[in-house]
Each structure stands twice: as C-alpha cells, then as structure tokens.
Amino acid sequence: MKLPIGLQTPSLLQTLHLIAQPTEFLANCFHRYGDTFTLRALGLNSSPVVFFSSPQAIQDLFTLPAEKFDFAKATHVFQPLMGNHSVILQQGRSHQRQRQLLLPPFHGTRLKAYGQLICQITEEVIAHWKPNTTISIHHYMPDITLQIILRVVFGIEPGERYRRLKELLSSLMEDITTPWYSSLFFFPPLQIDLGAWSPWGHFLRRRQKIDDLIYAEIKQRRVEADDSRQDILTMLMSARDENGQPMTDIELRDQLVSLLLLGYETTAAALTWAFYLIHSSPEVLEKLLQELDKLNGVLVPEVIARLPYLGAVCSETLRIYPIGLICVPRMVKNEPLQVGNYKFDVGTILVPCIYLAHRQKQVYPEPEQFKPERFLENKFSPYEYFPFGGGSRGCTGATFSMYEMKLVLATILSRFRLSLANKKPVRPVRRGITIVPSGNVPMVVTNKF
C-alpha cells in the first residue's frame, strides 16, 4: 500500500506541532500536499494518520460500516478523562446502546424544558455588566456554559456540592487546555503518579474528588427517585435500553463527564468566536440586531431558535471555527479499506478533518470571510458542513449546542450593545480540544437595555 504523500519529520515533532499550532499546521499541510495527506502524529504509536477534507472522501468515510473501524484504539487519549464507558470509546452494539440512551434528552420537545433556564443563567452571569466598562468575553462564556452543564445536564442546583464541582471542574479545564498539561494525555509514558505534586498525580487526585461529588449526586437522585425533574441526568437515569436495562452508576458518570468535556469549553469557544466575528463585521452586526430588535426584549426560547439570520450567524461561526478541528479518528480494523483512490492497510488511522473541509474553496468561495448569508442562500450536504462530526460518530449533543448558542447570543445582544475594545485582528490559538481567539476578546459595554 502506498500512503498519500505527507510530512517526513519525526512523529514527536509532528505531534508537538499539531498540539501547539494546530490550525497553522493543518493549513500548511493542506497547501503543501492537498486535501489528502499523511502524518505520524496524535500519539498513536507512530501509526500512519491520514487526513481527509474533500466532500467525496468525507462521504466515503461517513458511510462505511462502523464495524470496519476500531474507534477505541484511535481515541484512547480520552480514556483517563472520560472513562472506559464513555460513548466516545464504545464500539459496536455497546456504542449503539449508549447513543440510543443519550439522544432523546437532547432533541425535540425536551429542548423546550431547558430554554428558559439557559436564558436565566445567561442573565444572571451578565447582570452586573455596566455601560462604559470593558469586559473579556472569553472570561464570561466558560462561566455561562459550565453553569448550563451543571444545572441543565447534571441538574445540580446552587449549593455546596454545586460550588465544589464548579470549582474543581473549572480548574481541571483550565489545566487540560494548556499545551503542556494536555500533552500528558497524548504521551502515556508521562502518566506516572509520583504523588500529589506531580502533574499526573495531581490530575488523578482531582479527578477522584470530582468523581466523588458526581457519584454522591447520582446516589441522592436514586434515593429521591423524582421523575418530575427535567434535567438530562434524570432523563438518563430513567432511560432503558432494548432489554429494559438502565445505565449503571459508572456509565452515568462517564457520560456526564464526556458531555462536560465535549460541551463546556467547546461551546464557550464557539460563543467567543461568534462575538468576535459579529462585531468585526458591521453589516452582520446590523442585520442581526435588526432581527433581535423585533423580539422587543421578550426572550421566548422557541422564537429565538427559529430566527433565520441568528441561525446563519451560528452556522457560519461553526464553519470557520468548528468546535473540534477533526472528527473522531478511526483505525482500519480487520481488512484493507478503499477510500477514494487509496487503499489503506489495517492499523492506518483515518481522520475526517472538519477544519479543512470547511475551507474548501469550491464549496465555500472566499472561505476565510465571515458570510452568514451562505447558510440562507445554500443548503450544504453533511459531507461539506459537519461542525459536530458525522456518520455513526456524530455528536449526540449537536442540536443542544446550537440551541444553547442561539439563546446565549440572543440574550446578551438583547440586553447590551457591545463593541470590540481594539481593532487588532486575533489569531486562533489552541485551548484543549478546541480553538479560541487570542487575547480573550476584550469588549466595551456601550449601552444597556
């Protein structure tokens, strides 16, 4: 088998470059080698890693049967954080079971139960903003999204357990989003417990404190058995698979932590980008404010969710800066696989690259430009636009995340007028599994309504 052309530098250097400067690294590879290229990175025992971004290759990958791939070996870096039972690491019937249990709380009429609380949390966080002051949008968005997860997903009301979880989770996410700390998960030899003051030892002890609080909440819920609650944890506890079996406590813990890690910093980053891009484009800002002004300050979640231009703004933000740069990697399992003009041997890692696919010039003219109108004038296929992944491994919380983005944006922009504190362009920098604007996006609160 002849692999697509790619970098020949050592695997360690490729991995470090990908961790430290992912968008620049991927863009350079794309411009040098085209929309299919090979790396030896991601800490995967130097297995060849092939990146794809053309719509046809993405379609091939998303439509191939899941049993052709080993997802667990290609996603092992997440295991210490998410746990063995996370839907991200499951395969076959186990993965199908987890998805069937996870999907209902995030779709349809269930979303309506969360809308008012999302708006309320947003209002509470921004309540002390005052005109003629400067704020950091990137400071406030994680606070909003973490509170949404704790109250909407975990269903924990403010109190001592809430405070401790918020504190521990904030510090954990702050650490794992730094290049050095996140490197621990890509390089297993660094995962050595040398006591509480060693990096891995500190991670393990903090993880245990978080787990203790989560298991205490699950135990309390089982005792209370209050089916009238609307949070996602309650829905998951009452869900049953085709054999009538519920999730175990360990499964619940792993799904909750997975939802946290995939929906906290990622949605916060998307919102930060949205505020920056909107306020960098006067025409976009004007059109969006005109649409929001028609609400007359009355925030009805289901009305907000149907606003066309707001939806286009969110979609275009996620096109330019999707919540993840790549989809879940997949390892060729039992027999060679054909994708496009290439046939890949067992053990090869295949990666649909969201970031590069969303910059295909033949699909998105002037791909670097922020143009929400694209999504009003065109309907893109799930192989051209897939900010939450696709195929059998698409994000279960995609609908919820988009709903959350719309409500947070509409709530803030209906209460305040903002402007960028400076006109200097930002650059994308890595923060954990996502990409954020450099400089924390300082903004001036110019007016309040």
Number of domain modules: 1
On the 0-100 scale, what is the average pLDDT?
Answer: 90
Determine and state the CATH class. Answer: Mainly Alpha
The total of beta strands comes to 12
Fraction in beta strands: 5-15%
Largest sheet: 5 strands, mixed
Q: Which strands sit side by side, in order, in the main sheet?
A: 1-2-8-5-3
Based on the coordinates given, report the CATH architecture.
Orthogonal Bundle
Q: Can you tell me the overall shape?
A: globular
The value of Rg in angstroms is: 22 Å
Outline the low-pLDDT stretches. none
Residue share in helix: 40-55%
Q: The CATH topology, please?
A: Cytochrome p450
Q: What is the CATH homologous superfamily assignment?
A: Cytochrome P450
CA distance, first residue to last residue: 64 Å
Structural class: alpha+beta
Number of helices: 20
